[in-house]
Model the fold of this input.
Amino acid sequence: MPGGSPAAPLLAAPINATWAANHGAVWREKGFRGFLFEGLLDDLTPFPSESEAENAATTGNNHLSARPISLRARPAVVEQIVPGDWEALVAELTSAVNRLKAQDVDRNFLRLAIAPEAPYFTDPACRDMAGNRLRLAGAFCQKTGLRGIAIDTQSHNAIYDYRWDGHAPDASVETLREGARQFGRRLLRAFIHAYPDGEILLLAGMPETWGPLWRPFMEGALESVGAAAAIPIRLVLHDAAAPRTPTFYREYAAAIHRLFASALSKNAYERWERQGGIVFSLEPIHYEQDIPTARTPLAAYRRALYAAALYGDDYLMINAPEGGWWHIPPDTAAQFSHLRQSGRATVSFAPPVPRPLDAFAPRLLIAGAAHIGAAAAPDMEAEVLHNDTGAALLVWDGLENELSIPARTGIITATNLTTGEQRYYTPREEQIIVPVLDGLHLIEGLPMRQFALPAALGIRQRTPLRAGITQAEIEFTIQNPLTSPLRASATLNAEDQYAIGAAVVPVVVAPGKFITFRRTIQGISHLGQRPTFSINLQDAADAPINRTRSFPVEPPELYRIVMDGPPLGTPILHHSELGSAPFVVAGDARGGLVCFDAGTARVHWRTRNRGRYTKAPILITSPNATPYIASQSAHGRLRFYDMEGNEQVVVYSDAQGGGMTAVKDAQAPAVLSASVSGPTTVSIHTTAGTLRARIETAGAIRYLTSDPALPGKVFLIAERLNQERLLSESSHDEAESNDANQTRDHPMDYGPDKTGPFPGMLAAYTLDGDLLWETPLRDMPTRGPAIHVPHDRRQAILCTGDSTGAIVCYSAEDGAATARYSSNEGIPIRHITILDILDDGTPLVARADATSLALVAPERDGNAEGEARRWSSPLSLITALTRLPDRSGMLVGLDNGVVYAVGMDGRIRWEDHQGTSAVTGLATYQDTARDNAYVCLVSAQEGVLRALEVRQSLIAASAR
Done:
């Protein structure tokens, strides 16, 4: 919300409330505003009086048992049952909470987990007992003065998977979804009934960890508030990754809103928009051999800390599951043995905290400020705030250029938020110059009208700009950061191609308030364009203030398919009839397969297998060209399905997360599966599960690939194995092992200069297991080889990219190196694809590393980087890369869900920003409903497969 304060840091740790209250001033000085308290009502484990006799004997106390329970036969609990020490526990926490409030540490919550596993979605007794526990928690929070409850939803838990054994065997997927929704609704209603003024925090992992039934649970949780618009519900995202960039935190809350817009019912989403919000979390320290230790560099953590506080809603969670923020000597711990708060929150010895870790405390110099908005300067990555000294700039990466400010009373302070160093700048020659700064800084004391008022003008999309006939909602916001009323007129502008409605509006805004104007724009939009919208504010006292933003035109979304887990790689496209829409088969990491008609988006079948999967399924065919789907688990188990979803064959192997590829038989119309079945073995199977051949390699197989245009050949990259590993992995007798090791070592013994071993080999084999050729590799590739077969059937090539950024192209016929590109940057290649081969035989290769996308043209003489690179674009963290269907460029997927279509000239042809998480795969097929159009399938980490319609006629001429 405009003008809101940065989020307040909370500590989620096993800390005792009484002990914390004794040191309340210390915690406030560290920057904490509250705690998530454990050891009170930790989970849904039955109290002894709620359980059967045998459960009562093993539970032992009111909340510490982690034993799974079964309540299927237990009658519903009507009477509210409390622990035996209830009144003493209430008194203990009331005293601690009141003392913490006196020290301004007043944002304290009760933490409760939906655990242990039980059939909450189908068993009425389980639901009743859970509801009773939440009513008790609500009464506890109200009596003790806690702000609310933090429910650890255990979003990764097996109960959110309809394949969990604890669900009723006859429960359908639809029944379980409805049960999860009802459970979420009743659970929170029980708490709200007991504590109508309480706040609700829902703790969950990142979307890619959510089980299939977690979203229905969340929908029910949002429905629980009903018409009680004053109850805030905050989703706390536990992020196990390293601290993210400010851009991630700025964009991710909007991404979650987009995800919920498509995943929730209309009513639930409206409540989310009205009352929901995102809370980010960080875990800066952990234990290493009983010593608290920093998990990440301080500079990266501090940037993430300020970004999470600025872009999150209300709170910022600091996780410390092992402790590490406090020191308790053994003699001190003994003094608290009488306390009722128990379990992990019992006061016990904690080792001293190293002094350098004090810098990881969440002290925020912006804690008392109001957030205005992004800085108006186009060349500055900064946010504008308002505090007691005036306007303030929070610059994420310092100042690239010096900042000139007209002379004014007072001084300007620049604080390095990583080191704490402060610098002061005073007027000289009627101006103040803030020099170039490096790193995270807060610059305070700036004039309000020059900095705060431009940042107070906001423009954002409520609906995306779609290509073609466009109707989109744009929201304009004007807030008043000044101490006097703002009286002016505002002009809302759009480009000439759009009608925007009433454009000139009077503005009267009280100090600290804001107003919004929503406009539905109408017009014609083309892909590749970025139309600009602006707001112009004019008052009598000052020069006009103008704020401009541009938004991309995006392709319309035809449909989306929700999967049980993160999709794996590129979906399979199977055209059953010429000219018809294909059937699409996609696999996910939970073992799910879904097949749907791309023309109607109707799901044809779904199936699930146990286990973890890391590789996308492949399409193979029988000798009479009947299609089958092959899927390989992380443990090597192969399953073959027909196109009706019926499992036909299961093949077992010793592979651990191996690879799999489809290989066309050179002698028949069949397409076989080639899979890594052991560390140094590839097995080739028919659709009947029959072993056709086995390939034995000299090293550990790292990548396996093939191409239907090169029938009868499979290509692989093997890493050199040392003698000890080979001997330990071999199951042959000593004589056979010696012979095999001599054979395997021979091609990998020496490097190019004969002074050291090659790290690996690129090799080609026939489907009978015969070696066609092998080529030593100077460096191990970071990705599997890309294959390109020209339309005119000229020499096919394979390209590899390695950790130095170099690219080498090889002939698919004999393995000879045909071209090389050497990078001067030494950045490992993440993705590589061959776009075309020029008439002179020079390949055009798209390469992506951690910081950029580039088009290069390797040549036989290994020409210099500057000569070989055609262009480079600063697209970072690319997760998927493939060719456009008309070979006019490439499709690029990013880790934030953005998709770009980039032409051969490096210009963006179209872009899509509606994704939520990392793109895992990209595929295209011709749109059968429209001429000269194609559909782009986007697989994303959050478990969604989206279809975007791209009409060539709607690509702007400037982008072609």
Notes: The CA atoms of residues 53 and 892 lie 60 Å apart. The two ends are 39 Å apart (CA to CA). The chain has 15 helices and 62 strands. Confidence is low (pLDDT under 50) at residues 53-78, 723-756.
